[in-house]
Amino acid sequence: MSMKAEIVEIGRRLYSKGLVAGYEGNISVRNGNSILITPSGVCKGFLKEADIIEINSIGEKIAGNGVPSSETALHLKLYRERSDVQAIVHAHPPTATGFACAGLGLDQSLTAETVLMLGAVPLVPYGTPSTEELPEALNGFTGYDALLLANHGAISVGKTLEKAYFLMEQVEQYAKISFVANTLGTPKPLPCDEVDKLMALREKFGIQTGDPTVCSRNGQVTLYRFSRNELVNLIQEILNEVGG
Predict the structure, then answer these.
(1) Residue 71 designated active-site
(2) How far apart are alpha carbons 117 and 6 in whole angstroms?
(3) So what CATH class is 3-184?
(4) Residue ranges of domains in the chain
(5) 60: burial class by Cβ within 10 Å (0-12, 13-18, 19+)?
(6) CA–CA separation, 141 vs 41, rounded Å?
(7) What is the mean pLDDT of residues 175-186?
(8) Of 22, 104, 203, 226, which residue is most buried, by most CB within 10 angstroms?
(9) pLDDT tens for residues 60-80?
């Protein structure tokens, strides 16, 4: 399948799953030194390969008939800062966007699957869509593979477009589970020793999505911020700064 055909297919999935509506959302794939991106003002569920636009690393159009996505700057920001990222999906999944509109990130270690495969999905401060405010709001958050955008939606990245898309599906699933757990009563995050085991598996599998931040140790909610390797690296950085 060509890159353009894959973008068309992912657009169809986003629309059919209700992760976007109308003209919402945008998709891009790194294509060597250029980027393929969806056009503005076209429903992602009805894209055609001819709709896909090619741009360079500063957003100038190379090929295509339409206007590149109004969120092009958001995509370019992530590609500049993440050489490992090859694809980006921006959508408005309803439940996850509800969390973003309530000023809440997704940071509870409620299921093994979300801890292992997704980790925390922090909330990026609000930035006006289609302006430089939104990419600037990503400062300090680009190390995560999935993010909520305050009062806006969600964004996910991956080494392939399919992986970026599946992360978006997982973000919405995570939000649905979190919503139900909070509606039924007080959520009970996984014990920290279980999170430790999952973090070890993440390292083994080479998973580098954002860390889960809340677990339960002896019945008390505890912040869980770093894997062992991240903590060692942080300590080393501090020692280097103080001349240790």
Answers:
(1) yes
(2) 23
(3) alpha beta
(4) 3-184, 192-241
(5) exposed
(6) 28
(7) 94
(8) 104
(9) 999 999 999 999 999 999 999
Q: Which of 74, 61, 89 is nearest to 169 (CA)?
A: 89
Confidence category of residue 220, pLDDT binned at 50, 70, 90: low
Q: What single-letter amino acid sits at 188?
A: K
Q: What pLDDT band is residue 4 in, cutting at 50, 70 and 90?
A: very high
Pick the catalytic residue from 60, 71, 136, 172.
71
Are 25 and 14 contacting, i.e. CB atoms less than 8 angstroms apart? yes
Could you give the CA distance from residue 167 to residue 207 in angstroms, rounded to a whole number?
A: 12
